[in-house]
């Protein structure tokens, strides 16, 4: 029955349109705080999803200023498209998003490519995870940005559920059950597998 089919098609288009409009939105960036956090014209804050850039803090971490500068050049005063994943907000009420420039490039990936961010994922279940890992590994091989420095050779261990890695003596790390521990000979090997450092023991 053609009539029925047309109705189904309309319903499908309707669903696709609204599905898309919920999944992404366009916005103007007003302030760039650091490599991975901005404020929109609307006042809302956005934290780039799936990555972490060096912290500015009182004493900026290695490459923090470079990450902020690059982010500023890419998005300050510009219109961007925000795309969301399963988790669209963090516990501070910031939007968690993949941020796209007008030319279609994703800022999260550009930061990884320059070695100015590393992956921050609670396990490899984010939609762009493989693409992120591919780009991070490329930057690691090239030794750009945060990967340009001689790195510590001390062993660390990761939690296979949280994807956080710790120093062997970290109390938080010791809470990891034995079967969820993964040992790495150094930090770089942990980063290579998309693990990110513990904020307490700072391995
Ligand atoms: Zn730790």
Strands, helices and their partners?
Layout: H1 2-23, E1 24-32, E2 37-40, E3 45-48, E4 51-52, H2 64-75, E5 79-83, E6 95-100, H3 107-113, E7 118-119, H4 129-142, E8 156-159, E9 164-166, H5 171-174, E10 181-184, H6 187-192, E11 196-197
Helix pairs in contact: 3-4
Bound molecules: zinc ion (ZN).
Zinc ion (ZN) binds next to α5.
Description of the structure:
The chain has helices at residues 2-23, 64-75, 107-113, 129-142, 171-174, 187-192; strands spanning 24-32, 37-40, 45-48, 51-52, 79-83, 95-100, 118-119, 156-159, 164-166, 181-184, 196-197. Strand 8 (156-159) and strand 9 form a beta hairpin. It starts with a helix and ends in a 6-residue tail after the last strand. The relative contact order is 0.12. The chain has 6 helices and 11 strands. The chain has 203 residues and is α+β, with helices and mostly antiparallel strands. The protein has a 5-stranded mixed barrel with strand order 1-2-3-6-5. A 4-stranded mixed beta sheet has the order 10-8-9-11. It has a two-stranded antiparallel ribbon with strand order 4-7. The chain folds into 2 domains: 23-149, OB fold (Dihydrolipoamide Acetyltransferase, E2P); 153-203, DNA Methylphosphotriester Repair Domain. The radius of gyration is 20 Å and the shape is globular. It binds zinc ion. Zinc ion binds at residues 166, 170, 172-173, 198, 200-201.
């Amino acid at each position: 029955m053609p009539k029925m089919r047309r109705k189904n098609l309309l319903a499908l288009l309707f669903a696709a349109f609204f599905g898309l409009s919920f999944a992404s939105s366009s916005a103007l960036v007003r302030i760039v705080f650091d490599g991975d956090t901005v404020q929109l014209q609307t006042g809302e804050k956005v934290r780039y999803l799936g990555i972490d850039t060096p912290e500015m803090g009182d004493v900026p971490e290695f490459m923090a200023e470079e990450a902020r500068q690059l982010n500023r050049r890419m998005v300050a005063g510009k219109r961007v498209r925000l795309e969301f994943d399963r988790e669209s907000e963090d516990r501070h009420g910031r939007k968690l998003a993949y941020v796209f420039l007008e030319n279609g490039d994703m800022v999260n990936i550009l930061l990884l490519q320059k070695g100015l961010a590393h992956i921050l994922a609670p396990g490899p279940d984010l939609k762009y995870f493989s693409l992120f890992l591919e780009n991070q590994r490329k930057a690691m091989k090239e030794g750009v940005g945060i990967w340009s420095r001689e790195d510590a050779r001390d062993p660390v261990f990761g939690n296979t559920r949280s994807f956080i890695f710790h120093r062997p003596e970290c109390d938080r790390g010791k809470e990891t059950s034995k079967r969820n521990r993964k040992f790495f000979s150094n930090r770089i090997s942990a980063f290579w597998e998309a693990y990110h450092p513990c904020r307490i023991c700072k391995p």
